[in-house]
Structures are given as C-alpha cells and as structure tokens.
Amino acid sequence: MTWEIKQSINFYLEEFQPPKIPKDLRYLLMGAAIHACLAVILMVGLVINLFWQEHRLKGITERQSVIEQQVANIERERPPLKQDEGLVNQRADLRSDLESSQRILHYLTQQELDSSISFTDMVFQLGEQDVNGVWLKSFAFYEEGSHINIEGYTDDPAKISRYVSELLARTEFRKRAFRHVDVRKEEDSRWLVFNLDSRPAEKGQQDTRPASAKMTSADLIKRAREGML
User: Fold this and answer.
1) How does 18-49 read in b/e, with b if 16+ C-beta sit within 10 Å?
2) Domain range spanning residue 69?
3) Within this chain, do residues 185 and 213 fall inside the same structural domain, yes or no?
4) Can you tell me the distance from the alpha carbon of 126 to that of 104, in angstroms, rounded to the nearest whole number?
5) What is the side-by-side strand order in the sheet with 180-185?
C-alpha cells in the first residue's frame, strides 16, 4: 500500500501576490503625475499664446507702417503751411492796440479825471464788454460824461448791434443812445472800423476834444504805446 501525501497551495494568499505600492505612495505618485500633466498643458498654452502674440504684434506693426506711409504721402502731396504776413501784421497791430487799451483802462481807473466827476464806473463797465469779433480801439467822454465816443474794429457789422445793446443794458449807459454810427472798411484789411458817438451830429463834428478829461484818448493811446502809462 502506497501512501501519497498531497498538498494544496492557495496562490491567492497575500504572500504569493506580487509586491504592491503602498497606498500613500501611490496617491503621491498620482498627484505628481497630475501636476506634471497640468504643467505640460500650461506650457503648451503659453507657447501657443506666445506665437499668437507675436503674430498679432507683427500685424499691428505692419498696419502702423502702412498708416505712417500714408501720412508721409499726404504730407508730401500737401504744400507747406505758410502764414499770411498781412494777417500776422494785423494780428500784431490788434494785439498792440489791445494792450494799449488795457493800459489806458488801468490808467483811467487809477487816476482822477476830474475833481468832481469820476468816470471809473463807466470805464470799468466798458472794459467788461466782451463780444467775440469786436475790439475796442479808443474812447472819449464829453460834457462831463454826458456823451461818449467809441472807436474799434470788428469782423462783422452785425456784431456792432449786439455790442451796443449789451453796453446800453449796463447801469452806467442805460440813459444813453448813440446818435452817430459809422462803419467803414480800411484798405488792404479785412477788418472793419466802427465809430459810435452819442453826441448830436453838429456837436460831434465841431467838438473833437473831451471837455472833462485831462487828456484825449488819442493821447492816452500814444502814451500807452510808448509805455508811458
């Protein structure tokens, strides 16, 4: 009788299984792999964005070059800008007259023109007149301020009406009226010269010197231009 010993082995036991990576290490490796994938994706996105930005910058540079070339062509086609010497001289003369008038106004407001009569308020309100396109050249008071004569320049006769209406609306000029209005054009000039006078025609023609001022407006303008005020 033969005895045979049989032995069964369970290969499913843990000791017969191949070695396994610990769970903590496996999670760590998975996290590292995920981060590596994300880094690769980010780098690819950055490279794509870099190429796109370079392409966009190249397009902008090309468009800028085209625009600069067009501007250069337009500048070559247009004639060089030249200032009209006549207009420049007229502007200088008007500016000189304006500065002279301002010095005259300052002089009149600081000096007493008469021992019993003061024109300060009238001069102040006259200096406040500001109508675009109308420039004051000179003025004079007559008969102790009862009448006034104004001379100036304008580029449009219609603006004189606005100038007069606004002036007569002021407190010191409400009871006055201009009986004489003269508008004429100077030769070789686009400006119009106007003269407003509140005196009757016969008095305006005979009396050309202010009765209450110490000097005429012409003298004031002359002194202002000479820098004596």
Assistant:
1) eeeeeeeeeeeeeeeeeeeeeeeeeeeeeeee
2) 11-81
3) yes
4) 12
5) 134-142, 147-154, 192-197, 180-185
The 10s digit of each residue's pLDDT in 173-188 is 888 888 888 888 877 7
Q: Which pair of tokens denotes residue 182? A: 């003269």
What's the CA gap between 163 and 134, in Å, rounded? 8
Going by pLDDT thresholds of 50, 70 and 90, the confidence category of residue 208 is: very low
Model pTM?
0.40
- Encoded amino acid at 172, one letter: E
Which of 48, 66, 81 represents a domain boundary (last residue)?
81
Closest CA to 213 of 90, 117, 72: 117
Q: Which of 29, 64, 81 is the last residue of a domain?
A: 81
Query: Over pLDDT 70: what percentage of the chain?
Result: 73
Contacts of 183 (CB under 8 A, 6+ apart): 154, 157, 160, 192, 193, 194, 195
